[in-house]
Amino acid sequence: MSSSIGSSRVWTVVCAVATVVLGPAAVTASALDQANKAPLHHTVIDQAQAYIPSDPTRHRETV
Q: How far is residue 35's CA from residue 29's CA, in Å, rounded to a whole number?
C-alpha cells in the first residue's frame, strides 16, 4: 500500500512541475495567436523634415 501512495506522490509532483513549466508557454502561445489574428496597424509617417544646419555653430532664428 505504501508503494501506491509513493507513486501517487511522484505523479502529483510530476504534474505540478509540468503545470509550472508548460503553463506560461501555453499562455504565451495563446497571446501570440491573438496577436497574429489582430489587424495590422499602419503608422502615419510625418513628412516634416528636421532642420540640419550646415554650420553647427549657427542656429535658426524663430519668428
A: 10
